[in-house]
Amino acid sequence: MELHDKLRDCFDEMVVYKDLQKTNFFSALSLPAFMRDWLLKKFEDEDGEFDKDELLRFVKKFIPRKDDWTSIMNRIIVENEKVKFLAKVSINIEIKTGEVSFALPDFGLGFKDTIIESYVWDVCKDDLVKGKDVWGMVELGYRSPDDFDFEFEYEKKISKAKNSKAGKITLVSFKNFCPYRIDLDQYKEARRDFTTEEWTDVILGAVDYNAAGYETQEQKLTMLTRLLPFVEKRLNLIELAPKGTGKSYLFGNVSRFGWLSSGGVMSRAKMFYDQSKRREGLVSGSDLVTLDEVQTISFTDTDEMRAALKGYLEQGNFTVGDYKGVADAGVILCGNIRKEIMDADGYSNMFVELPEVFHESALIERFHGFIKGWNIPRMKDDLKVSGWALNSEYFCTIMHELRGDMTYRAIVDELIVVPAGADTRDTEAVKRIATAYLKLLFPHVQSAKDISYYEFKKYCFDRARKMRDTIKYQLGLLDIEYSGKDLPPFAIQTFDEE
After folding, report:
1. Which residues, at least 6 apart from 367, have a Cβ–Cβ distance to it below 8 Å?
2. Which of 196, 246, 202, 212 minimizes the C-alpha distance to 226?
3. Above 80 in pLDDT, residue 152?
4. How far apart are CA 273 and CA 326, in angstroms?
5. How far apart, in whole angstroms, are the C-alpha atoms of residue 255 and residue 227?
6. Which of 25, 276, 409, 452 is 20 to 30 A removed from 184 (C-alpha atoms)?
7. What are the φ and ψ backbone dihedral angles of 81, each rounded to 5 degrees?
8. pTM for the whole thing?
């Protein structure tokens, strides 16, 4: 059976026909991959064909551009209409008053100009508190200053809105953007019908890449390494790669659960916690935070950021003033690399390419592994997916759900034999990376006996060791204290065949 037929047979409604070489008009719409696939599924027939004009009419009506915001405000505030469209929503709960407000970050609408009435909040809160930013179909209305004198009774409680001198944009209704029923058990079971080589091709298609465009299996697996932080909590990686290998696209457009920050200024307040706004930063509510074009990022206070990063990368918690926070986001550093350094294949000092804040061995040691991005080919048309593939929204939600499954780490703990005297950070790094590979490539494995020694060693253990080895070698170049300190001789537990 052909792979695409097997894929459609096993995953049915979760498969969509993608042809990024022919649907370039999506690029002009600046839509993330998960929303694009949702639209394709909504309008495609069983053969993957769709009416482009019909799709564009829907986009024009329900997916506005930033330039449309003034028109939308006119309809809401002046014309007194209720307007419905797809958007990313952030929620704020005011501690002193208990008032709930929302923001639409893509349109510049802030919390001070909005309100969610208590009766609307009661209906929508379960969806709106699921993350820092939640995608969904919003319906907006307007409460004029005069309306704020109105008192209403709800569930035998009298409430009165605050700030009667200012009008507010209100959230009338919200429907979460989750068009699929996620069944992890079904996903795990379906994996059993594919070989490991077939499964790598399936994953590549799910994140918009054409497996046939890669020359080697190693190129494919290196590409998939970028997905490890999507399936494993607080997996911290560094990738240096040539320009044009698709770093920004994968980390910033494929999944709604990640956050990409490109260049500019980064502060402790933005990354962790803003004391003045009493608002948690990027690491809270995201599965991963990618600092892209890291060479061009400047930090407001190098020592302050370095101290905050060291604490967070080690334990997953942070303290800013009297605020103590905990988060699960991995931190990814992505940057470009010069040819002469790339040609050394990791045997020259690569971290001179990073900003000064990262020129400290104690901080670098807290990154679990290194991705050699030069093993990934430059993006070209024949690497763009063309055919039946898993829906990106579905697949990325699956990866998000797998983050909380502790079964895989228990398996890795059982399989990897740690020698006496092994460094704790090295052990944790190897195990965490191996766990992520196990989740990504072998989600059907539910016990140590479900995976062969050969496959675990080749696809999980050896790759984890190599990623950590590069960090160890670079630490030796950065700090003489680490020079010559290799990874300990980890081993793999074997089980007798029954």
Report:
1. 236, 237, 238, 313, 331, 333, 471
2. 246
3. no
4. 11
5. 10
6. 452
7. -95, 160
8. 0.84
Place of tokens 């803003």: 274
Asked whether 259 and 289 are in contact (CB, 8 A), the reply is: yes
Start-to-end C-alpha separation, the chain: 31
SS (H, E, C) the chain: CCHHHHHHHHHHHHEEEEECCCCCHHHHHCCCHHHHHHHHHHHCCCCCCCCHHHHHHHHHHHCCCHHHHHHHHHHHHHCCCCEEEEEEEEEEECCCCCCEEEEEHHHCECHHHEECCHHHHHHHHHHHCCCCEEEEEEEEEEECHHHHHCCEEECCEEECCCCCCCCEEEEEEEEECCCCCCCHHHHHHHHCCCCHHHHHHHHHHHCCECHHHCCCHHHHHHHHHCCHHHHCCCCCEEEEECCCCCHHHHHHHCCCCEEEEEEEEECHHHHCEECCCCEECCCCCCCEEEEEEEEEEEECCHHHHHHHHHHHHHHCEEEECCEEEECCCEEEEEEECCHHHHCCCCCCCHHHHCCHHHCCHHHHCCCCEEEEHHHCCCCCHHHECEEEEECHHHHHHHHHHHCCCCHHHHHHHHHEECCCCCCHHHHHHHHHHHHHHHHHHCCCCCCHHHCCHHHHHHHHHHHHHHHHHHHHHHHHHHCHHHCCCCCCCCEECCCCCC
Distance CA 178, CA 181 (A): 8
Tokens describing residue 379:
């993006």
pLDDT band at 178, cuts 50/70/90?
Answer: low
Tokens of 409: 């780490």
State how far the Cα of 235 lies from the Cα of 163, in Å rounded to an integer.
44
Distance of CA 204 to the CA centre of its chain: 16
Residue 243: which residues within 8 A CB-CB, separation 6 or more?
A: 336, 378
* Lowest-pLDDT range of 66-75, 151-160, 382-391, 474-483: 151-160
Average pLDDT over residues 38-47: 82
Q: Which amino acid is at 262?
A: S
The residue among 353, 393, 383, 317 whose CA lies nearest residue 35 is 393
Report the alpha-carbon distance of residue 403 to residue 70 in Å, rounded: 40
CA distances from 36 to 39, 56, 401, 410 (A): 5, 12, 21, 36
Distance CA 284, CA 316 (A): 10
What burial class does residue 67 get, using C-beta atoms within 10 Å of its C-beta: 0-12 exposed, 13-18 middle, 19+ buried?
exposed
Token pair listed for 426:
């090295």
Handedness of CA 477, 481, 482, 485 (dihedral sign): positive
Q: How many other CB atoms are found less than 10 A from the CB of residue 307?
A: 15
Cα(479)–Cα(356) distance, integer angstroms: 14
Token couple for 375: 């093993």
